[in-house]
Amino acid sequence: MKEESYLIKFEDVSFIREGHNTILDSINWQVAPKENWAILGLNGSGKTTLLQLITGYLWPTKGNLTVLGERFGQTSIPDLRKQIGWVSSALSYQMKGHFLAEDIVLSGKFATIGIHQIVSLEEQAEARELLTACGGSQLIGKTFDVMSQGQRQITLIARALMAKPPLLILDEPCNGLDLFAREQLLERIHSIANTPDAPNLLFVTHYTEELLPCFDNLILLKEGKIFDQGKTTDLLTKTQLERFYDKPVKLIPMADNRVTVVPN
Ligand SMILES: Nc1ncnc2c1ncn2[C@@H]1O[C@H](COP(=O)(O)OP(=O)(O)OP(=O)(O)O)[C@@H](O)[C@H]1O
What we know:
Belongs to the ABC transporter superfamily. By secondary structure, this protein is α/β, with parallel strands linked by helices.
C-alpha cells in the first residue's frame, strides 16, 4: 500500500519530554482505510501522548509520522485537525452549561466552541438529524448542564461527526458512565461504526469489555512501547494478557465476543 493510502503511519516514532523522559519509544503502526482500532493500556502507558501526536499537539522527537496522507513537517496542522474528530473529557470541559445540544452539534461544522456565525436553516436541520441518528432525539432543546454524562457523550460524538471527518478519535468515552449508560453508549458507537459512510474509528480505553466487535484491531500499549498489535481476538488471550499486565488475570466471556478481564 502506498504511504499516502494509510490514514495513520508511525515509522519508528519516539517522543521524549524535556528532561530526557522517553514517553513513547519506537512506535511502528499503520492504520489502513476502513480499519477501526482500539488502544488498550494502563494509566501512564502513553495513550494520550499518542493521540496528541496524531492530532499535532505534540511533535515526534524521532521518526516519521504521517496522518491522513500528510507527513508531519510538511503539512498545515490546523487544516489536518479539522479532518479529525476528537471526543475527550477535555472537550467536554470546554462546553458551557447553557449550550443547547443541537447548537453543540452544529458547532462541530465550524470546529468552534459555541456558534459565532450566521447559520442556515438547512445547517440547523442537519445538526438535529445527526443528533437523532446518533440516538439523541430526546436531547433536542436540552442544555448541556442538565444532560447526563452519557447524553453529553452522544452530543459530543454527533458534534464530531458534523464535520464528516475521515478519522474519529474516541478517547475513553465511557469514563464516568454507570454500567447501563456505558452499554447504551457502546450500542450507539456500534451503530455509528456500521453506517456506510462511517469514519475510521480510534477508540482508547482501559477496559477490554468496551472492545466492541467493530474494533477488530488492537494495540496493547505498555510503558510507552507497543507491547503487541494485531487482531483483537488474537491478542485477548489469558496468556497474552498476563504477559501484558504482568499479573495473573481471569477472562470472563461476554456477548459479541467481548471479554471482561479481572485480577485472578
Ligand atoms: N505534561 C507532562 N509533563 C511531563 N510528563 C507527562 C506530561 N503528560 C504526561 N506525562 C507523562 O507521560 C507518560 C504517559 O502519559 P499519558 O497521559 O500519555 O498516559 P495515558 O496512557 O494516557 O494515561 P491515562 O490512562 O492515565 O490517561 C506518563 O508517565 C505521564 O506521567
